[in-house]
Specification:
Chain A is of the alpha+beta class. Helix content of chain A is 46%, strand content 18%. In chain A, the strands form six sheets. Chain A has a nine-stranded mixed β-sheet, with helices on both faces. Chain A has a nine-stranded antiparallel β-sheet with strand order 17-16-26-25-24-23-22-21-20, with helices on both faces. Chain B is an alpha+beta fold. Classes of the chains: A alpha+beta, B alpha+beta. At the A-B interface, helix 10, helix 30, helix 31, helix 32 and helix 34 of A face helix 1, helix 2, helix 3, helix 7 and strand 7 of B. Chain B: One of its GO terms (cellular component) is endoplasmic reticulum.
Chain lengths: 1066, 339
C-alpha cells in the first residue's frame, strides 16, 4: 500500500518521458503524453486581438477612461461645449499610443520568430531530420553541435568526447561564462536509435540548479540523474563537437523561459502621483457639479425662479422627468468643469517625456569611443524616475568589473614578489626582500610554486587559454610571466616549458574539482622521474587548516593585506604522495566516482581525506579590475542617498571599517548542523547586530557621508537565499529578518544568483515598506529578469550580447555613465515633470474656479464664463508652450553642480515635489488666484458702465477680462519659476502672451461666417478701450503674484548659484 | 575612412541645444532690486489709487427705485401686472447742479440675463438680416420660435421677446410748469453692434421684410415700428433693442437708456424739482425683481466705482509695507546674496 501510494504521489508532480517516443516493451499500454510545444512567445498581441486588447489596456488607464466618459456625455447630452473639444485630443492620444505599442510588439514577434524558426537536427527513427526549433516535442532526441545553443532543456545522452562529458557555458542564463562539465547518462552511448528508456522527471520549475530525475532503461534498473546531466535551453555547447540529448522540457516550460519574466509596462511614481491628484480633482469636479446641481434646484424652488416669464421653457423641457433633468444637469456641469482635468496635460506629459528623452541619447558624455555608441533610450516613460532611485542593484561581471583578471603579486614562503614589469621578468623576480644566503633554497621553492601554478588548474590551450574561471587564466598567465609556460595537454600529459626553455611533462592522474563548499581544487600528477605530487590551491580559509601552522604564520599577513586591498587571494600548497598513499587515494576516487548513490558526498569525503598534511608554498593575488570610475560612481550614488546592492564581490565597495556580515553556504556549513537551524541562528544574530544594537540613526538630517555609525556590509549567496525564501512555513519571518538586516547595511552583496533570484531580491525590496524605487543595472542575459523586475532597468552595452540592452529601459555604454544619468538627467527630469504636473493642475484650477463661481450669478444654468474658443485654446495654445519649454529646458541647478554635489539628489528623493504638501500649496495658490480673478472683476462690475462714453459691458466682457488676467497670471507665474532663461523660453513665454493678444483681436475683429454666435465680436477691443479694465487687469495680476514674489524673495537660495560655482572651480 | 564615417554617424551632435548648454539668463531676485522695485510699484499704485478714488468721489449718482413695492410709492398702483398702460410719476429735487453730460440708466435686479438657455435663445443670422432665417428661425429660439399658428417669430427667442419696454420722460418743474428735458437716444449701444453686427434686411420699406412673420408675443409693436421717426434707429438696429440684446453679466445690472446732452441741459441738470413720468409696462414682481432708474455722470474711468480706487490704495500700501519688512529682514541677515 505504502509503495503504491508513493508511486501515485510521484506521478502527480513528475512527468514521464519516452526517449525517442518509443514505448517500453515491458509496459503494455503506451499513452503518448501531452506536453507544450517548443514555441517561445514573448509578444503580447496578435493581429486579431490587437485592437480590442490594446484599447482595453488603454482605457484601463483612469485618465483615458475619464475622457472617454466625458466625450460620450458630450455626444449624448445637450452640453455647453462641443464634443470635438474633448474627442479630438483623446483620439490623438489613443492613436499615438496604439501605434507605439503595436510597433514594439511587432519587434517582439520578430525576435520570437528568429528563435522559433531556427533549424535543429532531430533523430527520428534513426534518421537525422532538420526541423524548426518550435516543432521539437518532449521526448525527441536532438543533436547539437559546437557553439550552438540548446533549443530546449535536454538530458545528455551521448557526447562526441571520449570521457562522456561535454562543456557548456551558461552565460546567458546566470552570467557565468566559465565552461561547465556535464555528464552523459551512463550505459546509453550504444545504439541511440534503438534505445528505449523512460525519464521520470519533476514538473518544470525555475530553479536552475535543481533537477531530480530517474532514468530507467526499460529492463535495467533505475538511475538517478542530477543537474549535471541536464543541458539548459539558452546555454551554449563548447569544446565538444556534438552531443545528443533527449528533450525533457520545451517551450515556455524550459527553465530559461520560467526564469524570464514578461515585460510589463512600467509606470513611474510620477504617473501614480498624477493619478492620485487626478482623483482629488475628480472629487473636486464631482462635488462642484453636485453643488451646482443642488443649487440650481434649490434656487428654482423659490417662487418665480423656476420659470420666470422672460425665460420660459419649451414644451419638451416641461414634459421631461425631474430626476432625469437633474441627472442631465449634473452631466452638463461635469462637462462644463471638465477642463479642470485637461487631456492636454497627458499630451504634454507624453510629449515632454518623448522629446526629453532625446537629451539622453544626444548627450555626448555618454558616448563611448570604444564601441562607437552613445546612450539608448528604450522607454521614455521613466525619465523622471531616474531622479527617484533609492536602491541600485548592480550585476558584477562586466558591469562593475571588467571581468578581466590580472595577476598582481605572489608571495612565496613569506617573501613578497611584485610583478613590476613584464619586460624584465627575470630581474623583477629575483630582486626580493629575502636574505641572500637562502637564495639557493629559495630558487627551488620559487620553481615549485610556479610549477604548481602551471599544473593546478583546468585550463585548456586553444588559441589562448580557456578556463572555467578567469582567475585560472590569470594565474597561468602570471606563471608565464615568470618563465613557466603551460603548453597544454597531450593525451593525459600536461606540458610545461620551464625557465630554461625545456619542456617538462607531467601525467595528470586526477583532478579534484573545485566546488564552492570546499573552496579549493587539487590535481594529482606524476612527474617524469616518477614522483607523484598533489598540488592544491584554494581560499586561505580552506587551505590554512590543512597545512602546518608555522607556514601559515609566514604568509597570512600578506594574504590579509592583499584581501583588504580588494584582490582575490588564493593559497597554493603541495604534497608528495608515496606510491601506497597514491594507490589508496586512487582507489578511493575511482570507487566514489562510480558510486550510484550519494556520489557527491562520497567524493567529498575522499577529497578531504587526500587533501591533508600538505605544505604551503605561497599565495597569489589577482585583481578583477573594476570598470573605470566604478568606485567613484558607486560612492557618488551612495552619497546621493542610494543603497547599492551588488551581485558580486568587489571589495572597494566596502569602505574600510565596514563590518561584514556573511550569510553563505560556507557559514552555514561550519556548524555541522542542519542548514535551516543554523540559518535561523545566524539571521537572528545579524539582526541583533545590524538592526537592534546600533541605534540606526538615519543620517539624513546631517547629510554627512562619513557618520560615526558603524557601517555594515552583508553578503549572501544564491543557495542560502533560496533557503531564506522557501525554507519553511515561517519563511516570511526569515524574509522580513533578512530584509531588515539588508536595509540597515550600506552595501549588500549577493553572489551566485540565478536570474530569478536576482529578480526575487529586487521584488522583495520593491515591495517592502515605503515601496522604494529600484534600479537594476546589468549587461548580460542573466540580468534580464532583474532589469525587468526593477522600476528602472539599465543595460550596459557590454560584451555579453545585446539581451540586457534590448530588455532595458535605458542602455549606457559604461557603468560610469550612471552617475550623470541619475544625478544629472534624472534629477532635472524629475524637477521638470513634477513642476509640469503641479503647474497643469494649478493652471486649470484657477481657470475653472471662476467658471464655477459664475454659476452662482447665472442661476446655475451652465452658462460658460469664457467663450468656447477660449475654453478650447487655453490649454492648447495660450498656456501650453511655455510649460512645455520649461519642462524640456529648465535647469534650476546646472548640470555640473548636480554632478559635483551628489547630496543634492536627496532634495528630490521620495517624490518630494509631488507629495501632498506641495500639491496642497499649488492647489491653494490656484484657489486664491481663481477667487481673486472672479471677485476682483465681480466688484468692478457692480457698475458695468466702464467706458468713458457711459456704455455698459456685458457677460462676455466679464469673461474676457477674467480670462485675460488668467492667461497673464499663469504665464507670468511660470516665468517667475523659470531659473534658466534660454532664448526659447523667452520666445515661448512672451510669444504666448503676444499670441493671446493677437488671437483675441483677430477672433473678435471679424464676423466669422461659420459661427452661429458672434458673441465675442469686438469684446476684446472694447475692453482695451476701457481704462478701468486695464487697471483692474494690472491690479489683479500683481495681487495674485504677490505671494509668490514674496516667497521668492524671502526664501534663501537653496543652492549655490551656478555662475559662482564655476568661478570657484577656476 | 570607414571608421571616421561611423564616428560621424553615431557620435551625438555637439551643439549647445543637444548638450543642454544653451546660453541662459539666470535671474536672481536680489534685495537690491526687489526692495526699490516694491517701493516704486507701491508708490505708483498709491498714486493711481488716489486719482481713482478722487475721480470716483466726484461722480454724482442719483438712484431711484420705482418698482412700486411700497404703498407710498406712486408706482404702487401700477405694480399689478394686469393693469395695462399704467403711468406713474417719480419726483425728486436737485439742490445743486448735476453736472453733465448726465447719463440715464435703468436697472433691474434679480433678473438673470446671464442664464444659458436665455442667452442662447436668439438667432444671430436673423438679426444680421438674413431673410432665410425669417422663415425658419433656429430651434434654440424655442419656445419663441413659432407662434401658435406656426408663424415664425421675428426677432425670435426669449432674449428679444423680453425686451425692456418701460419708457421714461423727464420734466423739470419750472415755476409750476413742466419743461421736458430732451433725451438723446443715440450712442447708447456699442458702435460695432449698431453698425456691423446687427443689420436690417435690405428691403424697403422695412415692413415688407417681415411679411409672413409675427412680432414677439410680449412686444406691443413689431420690430419695424420700434422707432418709426428714424429709419436708422428702427428694426434690429434700434439702440434700445441693441442695449437689451447685450446680455448683462450679473443678475443686478443697469443698462444705458438715454443721455442728456442737448439744449439747456448740455451742462447738466440744474438745481430744481424734477418729475419722471414712467410708462410702467415691464413686470418684475412675479420673480421678485426690482426696477430702478439711475442718473449718473461719468469720468475717464466710467461710472462711479469706489472699488478700484480703494483696491489700488490697499495694494499700493501693502507693497510699501512689505518692502519695509523686507528691508528689516535683509538688514538683519546682512544681505546674504549681495556680495
Amino acid at each position: 500500500y505504502l509503495h503504491c501510494f508513493g508511486r501515485d504521489e510521484r506521478r502527480v508532480d513528475s512527468r514521464t518521458i519516452y526517449v525517442g517516443h518509443r514505448p517500453c516493451p515491458a509496459t503494455d499500454t503506451f499513452i503518448p503524453p501531452k506536453f507544450c510545444d517548443n514555441r517561445i512567445v514573448s509578444s503580447k498581441y496578435t493581429v486579431w486581438n490587437f485592437l480590442p486588447k490594446n484599447l482595453f489596456e488603454q482605457f484601463r488607464r483612469i485618465a483615458n477612461f475619464y475622457f472617454l466618459i466625458i466625450f460620450l456625455v458630450q455626444v449624448i447630452v445637450d452640453t455647453p461645449t462641443s464634443p470635438v473639444t474633448s474627442g479630438l485630443p483623446l483620439f490623438f492620444v489613443i492613436t499615438v499610443t496604439a501605434i507605439k505599442q503595436g510597433y514594439e510588439d511587432w519587434l517582439r514577434h520578430k525576435a520570437d520568430n528568429e528563435v522559433n524558426k531556427y533549424l535543429v537536427t532531430v533523430l527520428e527513427d534513426g534518421r537525422r531530420a532538420r526541423k524548426e526549433s518550435e516543432k521539437i516535442k518532449v521526448g525527441d532526441v536532438v543533436e547539437v553541435v559546437e557553439d550552438e545553443t540548446f533549443p530546449c532543456d535536454l538530458i545528455l545522452l551521448q557526447s562526441s568526447r571520449e570521457d562522456e562529458t561535454c562543456f557548456v557555458t551558461t552565460a546567458s542564463l546566470d552570467g557565468e561564462s566559465n565552461h561547465k562539465t556535464h555528464y552523459t547518462v551512463p550505459d546509453t552511448e550504444k545504439g541511440l536509435e534503438s534505445l528505449s528508456a523512460t525519464v521520470e522527471c519533476e514538473q518544470p520549475q525555475p530553479d536552475l540548479y535543481k533537477f531530480v530525475t530517474f532514468f530507467s532503461l526499460c529492463v535495467v534498473s533505475l538511475r538517478s540523474l542530477g543537474p549535471e546531466n541536464l543541458l539548459l535551453k539558452g546555454a551554449t555547447l563548447k569544446n565538444t563537437q556534438k552531443i545528443y540529448g533527449v528533450a525533457v522540457y520545451s517551450g515556455m516550460e524550459t527553465k530559461m523561459a520560467l526564469n524570464y519574466q514578461g515585460k510589463s509596462q512600467k509606470r513611474s511614481v510620477v504617473e501614480k502621483s498624477i493619478n492620485a491628484f487626478l482623483l482629488v480633482y475628480l472629487c473636486i469636479l464631482v462635488s462642484k457639479a453636485l453643488v451646482c446641481t443642488t443649487l440650481k434646484y434649490v434656487w428654482q424652488s423659490q417662487p418665480g425662479q423656476e420659470e420666470p416669464w422672460y425665460n420660459q421653457k419649451t414644451q419638451k423641457e416641461k414634459d421631461a422627468n425631474l430626476y432625469l433633468n437633474m441627472f442631465t444637469d449634473f452631466l452638463s456641469f461635469m462637462v462644463l468643469f471638465n477642463f479642470i482635468i485637461p487631456v492636454s496635460m497627458y499630451v504634454t506629459v507624453e510629449m515632454q517625456k518623448f522629446l526629453g528623452s532625446f537629451f539622453i541619447s544626444w548627450d555626448k558624455d555618454f558616448f563611448d569611443p570604444e564601441i562607437q555608441e552613445g546612450a539608448l533610450v528604450n522607454t521614455s516613460d521613466l525619465n523622471e524616475e531616474l531622479g527617484q532611485v533609492e536602491y541600485v542593484f548592480t550585476d558584477k561581471t562586466g558591469t562593475l568589473t571588467q571581468n578581466s583578471m590580472e595577476f598582481i603579486e605572489c608571495c612565496i614562503d613569506g617573501f613578497q614578489y611584485k610583478n613590476r614589469d613584464s619586460s624584465t621578468e627575470l630581474d623583477g623576480f629575483c630582486v626580493t626582500d629575502g636574505p641572500v644566503s637562502m637564495l639557493q633554497q629559495k630558487a627551488g621553492r620559487e620553481e615549485l610554486f610556479l610549477r604548481a601554478l602551471c599544473l593546478c588548474h583546468t585550463v585548456q590551450v586553444k588559441e589562448g587559454f580557456i578556463a572555467s574561471s578567469p582567475d585560472e587564466v590569470a594565474l597561468v598567465k602570471g606563471a608565464m610571466k615568470y618563465g613557466f609556460t603551460f603548453l597544454g595537454m597531450e593525451s593525459k600529459n600536461m606540458r610545461v616549458m620551464n625557465r630554461d626553455k625545456d619542456v617538462e611533462t607531467y601525467e595528470l592522474l586526477h583532478v579534484l574539482n573545485f566546488d564552492p563548499v570546499r573552496r579549493r581544487m587539487s590535481v594529482i600528477v606524476r612527474s617524469k622521474c616518477g614522483d607523484i605530487m598533489l598540488f592544491c590551491k584554494g581560499a586561505d580559509s580552506s587551505i590554512f587548516p590543512r597545512v602546518r601552522q608555522e607556514e601559515v604564520d609566514r604568509i597570512s599577513m600578506h594574504v590579509e593585506r592583499n584581501a583588504t586591498e580588494g584582490y582575490r587571494t588564493l593559497c597554493v600548497a603541495y604534497k608528495l604522495l608515496s606510491s601506497e598513499e597514491y594507490a589508496q587515494a586512487d582507489a578511493g576516487l575511482r570507487e566514489a566516482r562510480l558510486a550510484l548513490d550519494d556520489r557527491e558526498e562520497k567524493l567529498m569525503a575522499v577529497y578531504n581525506q587526500v587533501e591533508t598534511g600538505m605544505s604551503l608554498i605561497g599565495a597569489t593575488a589577482v585583481e578583477d579590475r573594476l570598470q573605470e570610475e566604478a568606485a567613484e560612481t558607486m560612492e557618488a550614488l551612495q552619497r546621493a542617498g542610494m543603497k547599492v546592492w551588488s551581485t558580486c564581490y568587489a571589495c572597494r565597495l566596502f569602505q574600510r571599517g565596514t563590518e561584514l556580515l556573511e550569510l553563505t553556504v560556507r557559514t552555514l556549513e561550519d556548524g555541522g548542523r542542519r542548514r535551516e537551524e543554523r540559518l535561523h541562528e545566524v539571521l537572528l544574530d545579524y539582526h541583533k547586530r545590524a538592526v537592534q544594537d546600533p541605534p540606526p540613526v538615519k543620517t539624513r538630517v546631517t547629510r554627512s557621508w562619513t557618520s560615526a555609525k558603524q557601517d555594515y556590509g552583508f553578503i549572501i549567496d544564491g543557495a542560502t537565499l533560496s533557503l531564506v525564501f522557501n525554507s519553511s512555513p515561517d519563511s516570511s519571518h526569515y524574509k522580513s529578518l533578512f530584509l531588515q538586516i539588508c536595509q540597515n547595511c550600506t552595501t549588500v552583496l549577493c553572489c551566485r544568483m540565478a536570474p530569478l533570484q536576482k529578480a526575487q531580491i529586487v521584488n522583495m525590496v520593491k515591495n517592502s515598506k515605503g515601496s522604494p524605487i529600484t534600479l537594476s543595472i546589468g549587461d548580460g542575459a542573466n540580468d534580464v529578469s532583474m532589469i525587468l523586475e526593477a522600476h528602472i532597468g539599465i543595460g550596459i552595452k557590454g560584451k555579453e550580447g545585446r539581451q540586457a540592452v534590448r530588455n532595458s529601459d535605458y542602455a549606457i555604454p559604461k557603468l560610469k555613465h550612471l552617475k550623470k544619468l541619475l544625478l544629472g538627467h534624472g534629477h532635472l527630469y524629475y524637477v521638470r515633470i513634477a513642476h509640469l504636473v503641479q503647474y497643469f493642475f494649478y493652471k486649470n484650477l484657477c481657470f475653472i474656479l471662476p467658471q464655477f463661481l459664475y454659476q452662482f450669478f447665472c442661476g446655475s444654468s451652465q452658462q460658460p464664463l469664457y467663450d468656447a474658443a477660449y475654453l478650447t485654446m487655453y490649454n492648447i495654445c495660450f498656456t501650453s508652450m511655455p510649460i512645455l519649454a520649461y519642462s524640456l529646458l529648465e535647469q534650476h541647478i546646472c548640470m555640473e553642480v548636480l554632478m559635483s554635489n551628489a547630496t543634492l539628489y536627496r532634495d528630490v528623493a521620495k517624490n518630494a515635489m509631488l507629495r501632498w504638501s506641495p500639491f496642497l500649496y499649488w492647489t491653494l495658490l490656484g484657489v486664491y488666484q481663481g477667487l481673486l480673478f472672479f471677485f476682483g472683476v465681480r466688484f468692478l462690475f457692480s457698475n458695468p458702465a466702464l467706458q468713458d462714453n457711459g456704455q455698459v459691458f456685458g457677460n462676455w466682457s466679464y469673461g474676457t477680462i477674467v480670462f485675460t488676467v488668467l492667461v497673464f497670471t499663469v504665464t507670468l507665474k511660470l516665468a517667475m519659476d523659470t531659473r534658466h532663461w534660454t532664448w526659447i523660453n523667452h520666445f515661448v513665454i512672451w510669444g504666448s502672451l503676444a499670441f493671446y493678444m493677437f488671437f483675441s483681436f483677430f477672433w473678435g475683429g471679424i464676423i466669422w461666417p461659420f459661427l452661429r454666435q458672434q458673441r465675442l465680436y469686438f469684446v476684446f477691443a472694447n475692453m482695451l478701450r476701457s481704462v478701468s479694465a486695464w487697471l483692474v487687469i494690472i491690479l489683479l495680476i500683481l495681487l495674485s503674484l504677490l505671494p509668490e514674489i514674496l516667497l521668492l524673495v524671502l526664501r534663501k537660495p537653496r543652492w549655490p548659484h551656478s555662475r559662482q560655482v564655476r568661478y570657484t572651480h577656476i | 575612412m570607414m571608421k571616421e564615417e561611423l564616428e560621424t554617424t553615431n557620435r551625438p551632435d555637439n551643439t549647445a541645444f543637444t548638450q543642454q548648454r544653451l546660453p541662459a539668463w539666470q535671474p536672481m531676485l536680489s534685495a537690491g532690486i526687489v526692495i526699490p522695485g516694491f517701493v516704486l510699484i507701491g508708490l505708483a499704485f498709491i498714486g493711481i489709487g488716489v486719482a481713482l478714488f478722487i475721480t470716483s468721489q466726484n461722480i454724482t449718482v442719483l438712484e431711484k427705485d420705482y418698482t412700486g413695492v411700497e404703498t407710498t410709492s406712486d408706482c404702487y398702483k401700477c405694480s399689478n401686472p394686469s393693469d395695462k398702460n399704467c403711468t406713474c410719476k417719480l419726483e425728486f429735487s436737485l439742490s445743486t447742479l448735476f453736472e453733465g453730460p448726465v447719463f440715464f440708466y435703468y436697472g433691474l435686479s434679480n433678473y438673470f440675463q446671464s442664464q444659458r438657455s436665455y442667452g442662447a435663445s436668439k438667432d444671430e443670422y436673423q438679426l444680421s438680416g438674413d431673410l432665410d432665417y425669417f422663415k425658419t428661425p433656429i430651434s434654440a429660439c424655442s419656445p419663441y420660435q413659432y407662434d401658435a399658428n406656426q408663424n415664425p417669430i421675428v426677432p425670435c427667442g426669449s432674449l428679444a421677446n423680453s425686451m425692456f419696454n418701460d419708457t421714461f420722460k423727464l420734466y423739470q418743474i419750472v415755476n409750476g410748469t413742466k419743461k421736458l428735458v430732451p433725451f438723446d437716444g443715440k450712442g447708447i449701444a456699442w458702435w460695432t453692434d449698431y453698425n456691423i453686427k446687427y443689420r436690417n434686411p435690405s428691403v424697403t420699406p422695412l415692413k415688407n421684410a417681415f411679411n409672413g412673420t409675427v412680432k414677439p408675443s410680449f412686444w406691443s409693436k413689431p420690430a419695424y415700428e420700434l422707432d418709426t421717426s428714424d429709419p436708422s434707429n428702427n428694426g434690429f438696429v434700434n439702440q434700445d433693442f441693441l442695449v437689451w440684446m447685450r446680455r448683462a453679466a450679473l443678475p443686478d445690472f443697469r443698462k444705458l437708456y438715454r443721455r442728456i446732452t442737448e439744449g439747456d441741459y448740455a451742462r447738466g441738470l440744474p438745481a430744481g424739482n424734477y418729475s419722471l413720468e414712467i410708462a410702467y409696462n415691464y413686470p418684475v414682481l412675479s420673480f421678485g425683481g426690482r426696477k430702478k432708474v439711475v442718473f449718473s455722470n461719468v469720468s475717464w474711468m466710467g461710472g462711479k466705482n469706489q472699488f478700484l480706487g480703494i483696491a489700488y490704495l490697499v495694494v499700493g500700501s501693502l507693497c510699501v509695507v512689505m518692502s519695509m519688512v523686507m528691508l528689516i529682514v535683509y538688514a538683519k541677515f546682512k544681505f546674504p546674496e549681495d556680495d
